[in-house]
Amino acid sequence: MSGWQPWMRVGRRAMCLIGLALAFAPTAAQAGERTLLVLPAQFHPANHGVAYYRRMSGLADLCMARGAGYFTAVLDLPAGTRLTNLRAYFEDGSDTAFGALALYRVGVATSDLVVITPMSLPKPHGSPVAASIEPAETVREPFRYVLHLTLTGPGVCFRAAEVTWED
């Protein structure tokens, strides 16, 4: 029985990597809409000395070990697409800390808030928070669009984000 276990571990890792690759690609939502899944592995610390960890060897949830932290992920969307919704999934087991996700339009001399989700509240595993982008934001050159994640303390983990857009 032990002879197959190493292959099973390799198989699990391969499945995780395949899942990651698929998550980077936009998926169909409703007619004319697409959803970009943004995973915790795509976020990087925005402030120095952040005490955080990632579950499943870095492939799953992003969690604070102590204190608060800020993380960013740059979105790569084609110019002319219209952003319509932002959804974030948190595992929130804290009565005092929370998570929130914001979308910014960033240029050479400007950073404009496009939308921010409501803060997470202690809820069942994987409860989402969402915000509609009204009016829809049209992706323009030379701006970049950046997700800004806030986790205010231990007990709150970020699971994933979805950005819904139209061609």
Can you give a write-up of this model?
The longest helix is centred in the first third of the chain and has 19 residues, at 5-23. It contains one helix and twelve strands. Strands 1, 2, 4, 5, 7, 10 and 12 form a seven-stranded antiparallel beta sheet that branches. The protein has one helix at 5-23; strands at residues 27-28, 33-38, 44-45, 51-54, 62-66, 69-75, 82-92, 99-106, 111-116, 128-138, 144-151, 156-166. It is mainly beta and 167 residues long.
Quote the distance from N terminus to C terminus. 51 Å
Please summarize the sheet with the most strands: 7 strands, antiparallel
- Which range best describes the helical content: under 10%, 10-25%, 25-40%, 40-55%, 55-70% or over 70%? 10-25%
Secondary structure: number of strands: 12
Can you tell me the overall shape?
globular
What's the Cα radius of gyration? 17 Å
User: How large a portion of the residues is in β-strands, by DSSP E?
Assistant: over 45%
Q: What is the residue-mean pLDDT, rounded to a whole number?
A: 83
Kindly name the structural category.
mainly beta
List SSEs in N-to-C order. Answer: HEEEEEEEEEEEE
Number of helices: 1
Q: Name the poorly predicted regions.
A: 1-29
